[in-house]
Design goal:
The protein is mostly helical. The chain has a domain at about 60-170. Helix content is about 65%, strand content about 0%. It contains 5 helices and no strands. The protein has helices at about 5-20, 60-90, 100-115, 115-135, 145-170. Helix 2 runs antiparallel to helix 3 (about 100-115), helix 2 (about 60-90) packs antiparallel against helix 4 (about 115-135) and helix 4 runs antiparallel to helix 5 (about 145-170). It is flat. The N and C termini lie far apart (about 70 Å). The relative contact order is 0.12. The model is unreliable at about 45-60 (pLDDT under 50).
Length: about 180
């Protein structure tokens, strides 16, 4: 009984050995490849392809536009906040799907839409900051990032304050 599994194992083992001796074309070679014997001390000649230019504005018109967009978004949010806060206060403690609760949810949705300018301006300022940082690091531009960083800081503070105010309104309503 023990002989049968032993013979089948031996037959499989010998089949594997015969395949390896037969040519071994299916297995990778262990011979040294050209890349393994390359001299890494001498840098290889890089192809002379010009790098694409990063769009860095000569003046700060783009920065001014994004800062104005963030301010407009903050103003729109503040204008819509009073209505949303009033409706949310009226719906506090109201049942889910009741008329006051639905009105408050709609006002909160409008409030979130009113802040789109602030959020998109912050994203654009982040992109501008990254592009300008890369351009300075690559030597394609000079200057500092102070103006962009200041505008980003103001936009980020506005968006964070809007998030906090939205979260406070949502916390007053019953959650489904």
């Amino acid at each position: 009984m023990m002989l049968r599994p032993l013979l089948s194992s031996l037959a499989l083992f010998l089949t594997g050995c015969a395949a390896a001796v037969g040519g071994g074309d299916g297995y990778p070679s262990l011979a040294r490849r050209p890349v393994e014997s390359q001299d890494y001390e001498t840098p290889a000649a890089a192809p002379s392809v010009p790098a694409p230019a990063v769009a860095v504005p000569a003046d700060d018109a783009e920065l001014s536009r994004y800062a104005a967009q963030a301010s407009a978004g903050a103003a729109n949010f503040d204008k819509a906040y009073a209505d949303a806060e009033r409706l949310t206060r009226a719906a506090s403690g109201a049942a889910i799907s009741s008329d006051p609760w639905v009105a408050a949810q709609a006002a909160i949705s409008a409030l979130e839409a009113a802040r789109n300018d602030s959020v998109s301006a912050l994203a654009a300022l982040d992109t501008l900051y990254t592009e300008r940082t890369n351009a300075i690091a690559d030597g394609k531009a000079t200057g500092t990032l102070d103006a962009i960083d200041a505008a980003r800081g103001q936009a980020l503070a506005a968006v964070d304050a809007q998030n906090d105010r939205l979260d406070a309104l949502k916390a007053k309503l019953a959650q489904p």
